[in-house]
Design goal:
It contains 9 helices and 8 strands. Helix 1 (13-28) crosses helix 8. The protein is globular. Strands 3-4-2-5-1-6-7-8 form an 8-stranded mixed beta sheet, with helices on both faces. The longest helix is centred in the C-terminal third of the chain and has 20 residues, at 252-271. By secondary structure, the protein is α/β, with parallel strands linked by helices.
């Protein structure tokens, strides 16, 4: 399994972009994928889906699915590749499952690193790709246990704004990561939301910071924003993703998202062989 982690500086752009990328790839690539939410239930990358209706405030203390259930099973050593999907919510049948985040009452009690990695290890027996998101400040060291060394190193995607201070801080830290040999550096950069009329275009950003990483500008979309707020992301992609490859794509966000997802697919395939199983 390939793990793809989208990271931002805390403003939340990675939540929208990771959900959009997973949905597009689920509709266009024959793989089985997981969206894993580590933010409190109903927030983060699952905020654009109507998996809970409008009753976030009345969530049960012991959820019967999502991260709470998965965590209990993992702690009791009862989590297996056979029952893992039973506690997820299917988004695209056979292609994309959503593991909802912990309940609000437990949201502050974050999983420890070893607990997270054990859950990832079992998910890797079911899925080709696992998507998640975090903040740059939440990066943690990789555990040293022998059981973990068998797992692939996560692929990191930096989600940045056209903000000079943010860009300078990112490229300063990125350079330090490479010099020290740490594995927290990004493999891809997404500038989102992207304004092609700005002086800080992707080309100029790469030139200014001598960036050799693949970088993509993904524009703001009113339609996508409305779909996110109405929790209708799947409907947005079904309406706007063309079935025929030669059909013109009208939505600006999708025009940037498609080559970005192609790059993710290529990187994921290099990191871990993809099964190519047929989805729904």
């Amino acid at each position: 399994m390939s793990r793809i982690i989208f990271e931002d500086t805390g403003w939340g752009g990675s939540s929208q972009l990771v959900a959009a990328s997973a949905l597009y790839m689920a509709l266009n690539y024959p793989m089985r994928m997981l969206l894993l939410n580590q933010d409190p239930r109903g927030t983060g990358l699952e905020a654009g889906f109507s998996v809970h209706g409008n009753h976030y405030a009345s969530l049960p203390l012991l959820a019967e699915n999502g991260m709470d259930a998965i965590r209990r099973l993992a702690v009791n050593e009862r989590l297996t590749k056979h029952n893992f999907p039973d506690y997820t919510t299917p988004v695209v049948i056979g292609r994309l499952d959503l593991l909802t985040g912990p309940s609000h009452l437990e949201g502050e009690a974050l999983l420890d690193l070893e607990e997270k990695e054990r859950i990832y290890a079992i998910a890797g027996q079911v899925y080709d790709i696992c998507f998640s998101r975090t903040r740059f400040s939440e990066q943690t060291a990789i555990p040293s246990g022998d059981w973990y060394r068998k797992e692939p190193v996560p692929l990191r995607v930096a989600v940045l704004r056209q903000d000079r201070s943010e860009l300078e801080a990112f490229f300063r830290d990125q350079t330090l990561d490479r010099k020290t040999g740490r594995t927290t550096g990004a493999e891809l950069i997404a500038v989102y939301p992207y304004d092609s009329g700005s002086q800080w275009t992707v080309r100029n950003i790469c030139r200014r910071f001598a960036c050799k990483l693949p970088a993509f500008g993904i524009s703001y979309s009113t339609q996508f924003s409305d779909a996110w707020n109405n929790r209708e992301l799947l409907k947005f992609f079904r309406l706007n993703c063309p079935v025929r490859q030669d059909k013109k794509i009208r939505d600006e966000m999708l025009r940037g998202l498609i080559p970005f997802c192609q790059a993710i697919y290529t990187l994921a395939g290099r990191a871990a062989p993809l099964s190519g199983e047929k989805g729904a």
